[in-house]
Amino acid sequence: MKAVEESDESLMARFAGGEAAAFEVLYRRHEMRIWRYLNRHVGDRECANELMQEVWFGVAREAPRYRPTARFTTWLFTLAHNRMVDWFRSRRPHESLDALGVDGTEIMRNAAQDGTGPFAAALAREQAAALLDALRQLPADQREVFVLQIEGDLSVDEIARITGSAFETTKSRLRYARSKLRELLKEYA
């Protein structure tokens, strides 16, 4: 019989109660999703690593005040989003999210290591590079909602709350992002 996985909200409550092991489970469960979200927006591994630390320090700092009014991932991605926005404001005041590139090295490395042979690995690298290039071509607001949904497995309502946008605006941005990505990646369909 398969064991039922403990909810993030329950783990957060245990961590707030002083159980460090609960924090470790949360971190392992969400670290790569948060890191990819940050890295795809800042386009720099070092900055993504720095922001990642700040996000998890924030989780630790806010644990006693955390209340599960929404899914934990919504709260966590809100922290990540806010840290990223602060980073852009403080370090790159004149550069927009849209002007930044995305580092595809990690995706291509993972594709090459999947053990399916050199041809499949080359094809996977080509597809990953095409996807990253297509993501770069999206307007910043569309890229953000798309990456939040893919990396965060978040609903449109949750993404709207994170970005401070109206539900319909968020829904439209997501629809336009998908449409543009389908157009840009039609040769891979």
What is shown here, in short?
This protein has helices at residues 8-16, 20-42, 45-62, 72-91, 105-112, 118-137, 140-152, 156-163, 167-184. The chain has 189 residues and is mostly helical.
Give the topology.
Layout: H1 8-16, H2 20-42, H3 45-62, H4 72-91, H5 105-112, H6 118-137, H7 140-152, H8 156-163, H9 167-184
Helix pairs in contact: 1-2, 2-3, 2-4, 2-7, 3-4, 4-8, 5-6, 7-9, 8-9
Could you walk me through the main structural features you see in this protein, from its secondary elements to its overall organization?
This protein has a domain at 1-99: Rna Polymerase Sigma Factor, Chain: A, CATH 1.10.1740. With 189 residues, the chain is mainly α. The N and C termini lie far apart (38 Å). Helix content is 72%, strand content 0%. The protein has helices at residues 8-16, 20-42, 45-62, 72-91, 105-112, 118-137, 140-152, 156-163, 167-184. It is built from 9 helices and no strands. Helix 1 (8-16) crosses helix 2, helix 5 packs antiparallel against helix 6 (118-137) and helix 8 crosses helix 9. The longest helix has 23 residues, at 20-42.
Helix-strand topology string: HHHHHHHHH
Overall morphology: globular
* Secondary structure: number of strands: 0
Q: Which regions have little confidence, pLDDT < 50, spanning 5+ residues?
A: 92-115
Alpha-carbon distance between the termini?
Answer: 38 Å
Radius of gyration of CA atoms, rounded to a whole number:
18 Å
Sheet-strand content, in percent, reads under 5%
CATH homologous group name of the domain at 1-99:
RNA polymerase sigma factor, region 2, helix turn helix motif
Question: What would CATH call the architecture of the domain at 1-99?
Answer: Orthogonal Bundle
Category by helix and strand content: mainly alpha
How would you state the average pLDDT, rounded? 80
Report the major sheet.
none
Question: How large is the count of helical segments?
Answer: 9
The CATH class assignment of the domain at 1-99 is Mainly Alpha
> What is the percent of helical residues?
over 70%
